[in-house]
Amino acid sequence: MYANILDGRKISQEIRKNIMDEVHKLKLNYGITPGLSVIIVGDDEASHVYVSMKEKACKMVGFHSEVYKLPKETTQDQLIKLIDGLNHNDKIHGILVQLPLPEGIDENLINSHILPSKDVDGFHAINTGNLLLGEESFIPCTPRGIIELIKRTGEDITGKHAVVVGRSNIVGKPVGVLLLRENMTVTICHSKTKNIEEHLRMADVIVAAAGIPELIKGNMIKKDAIVIDAGTRKVGDKLVGDVEFKEASKVASWITPVPGGVGPMTIAMLLENTLKAAKKKCE
Ligand SMILES: NC(=O)C1=CN([C@@H]2O[C@H](COP(=O)(O)OP(=O)(O)OC[C@H]3O[C@@H](n4cnc5c(N)ncnc54)[C@H](OP(=O)(O)O)[C@@H]3O)[C@@H](O)[C@H]2O)C=CC1
Ligand SMILES: Nc1nc(=O)c2c([nH]1)NC[C@@H]1CN(c3ccc(C(=O)N[C@@H](CCC(=O)O)C(=O)O)cc3)C=[N+]21
């Protein structure tokens, strides 16, 4: 094993500890308890697992947390009414609608019904636009977690080449924007990219977010690259990333494991965003 491991579990624990302290101060000085509402529609098993992880994390740091579990037949209008109520609820500082939503519900439309100041996922068009403009905004949790992991390597990435695999609105695209903000030169690959291996071999930083188990092999990675694997896919009863971990860790300088890499960081960043939303109440 050549690579250093970026231990998302450990880093997220440190972040949570800080959040816990901040929550304590916020309660003591302002009487505010950060509150997060999570809405989940339908009965996708993996989504329910993620939501209960979020709920548990909220409880651990002393947040007020509410989960709304709605049947898959829920209409767009019903969902909007629920969001409207939460927008007006003073106990709630952050609202998250778990994706994907059942067919027939417009995700962008739903996300843009959340007040931008409570949009802790950063998926509202206003937050998305501000991210692109370089203005203050809520930054999506997984991309934020990925940048935090890269920073923890301590390596200077200025002017170096990043290759992102995946262009979704929740991971690939925003992570590309954030890497650009870190002064990297960014290539974004996707399912139509013809010469993906060629791009990968040039990368100083690889961010994998395709959701294809072990798509990226060890021999596609440049020596000493930083490899961040956001992919998570159940194969049998194992959770597998987009990177062939064993081979990749023989060439990369830093690598994230799956599980225990990007996943826990996503949740830590959700807590940070919710804390930030609650703190705005004290300004
Ligand atoms: N750890 C965490 O906290 C999180 C993990 N995830 C995981 O990250 C992965 C991606 O999630 P998400 O962005 O929502 O997924 P999407 O399915 O929305 O997007 C996948 C992206 O990967 C691209 N892609 C698919 N196949 C290939 C291929 N063979 N070569 C290159 N690119 C390909 C797609 O291209 P195209 O656009 O052309 O279709 C698309 O842009 C999943 O495994 C998901 O579980 C997601 C969110 C959080
Ligand atoms: N509105 C919205 N916001 C999201 O942030 C969001 C979403 N929808 N839909 C789905 C994806 C996925 N996601 C994960 C969060 C944590 C882990 C995580 O902590 N995973 C653990 C393992 C968990 C397990 O064992 O299954 C790990 O990687 O170590 C994974 C995935 C957030 N997402």
TrEMBL record:
The keyword NADP applies. This is Bifunctional protein FolD. It comes from Crassaminicella thermophila. Residues 6-121 form the Tetrahydrofolate dehydrogenase/cyclohydrolase catalytic domain. GO terms for cellular component: cytosol. It catalyses: (6R)-5,10-methylene-5,6,7,8-tetrahydrofolate + NADP(+) = (6R)-5,10-methenyltetrahydrofolate + NADPH; (6R)-5,10-methenyltetrahydrofolate + H2O = (6R)-10-formyltetrahydrofolate + H(+). Catalyzes the oxidation of 5,10-methylenetetrahydrofolate to 5,10-methenyltetrahydrofolate and then the hydrolysis of 5,10-methenyltetrahydrofolate to 10-formyltetrahydrofolate. Its EC number is 1.5.1.5, 3.5.4.9. InterPro entries: Aminoacid_DH-like_N_sf, NAD(P)-bd_dom_sf, THF_DH/CycHdrlase, THF_DH/CycHdrlase_cat_dom, THF_DH/CycHdrlase_CS, THF_DH/CycHdrlase_NAD-bd_dom. One of its GO terms (biological process) is L-histidine biosynthetic process. The gene is folD. NADP(+) binds at residues 166-168, 232.
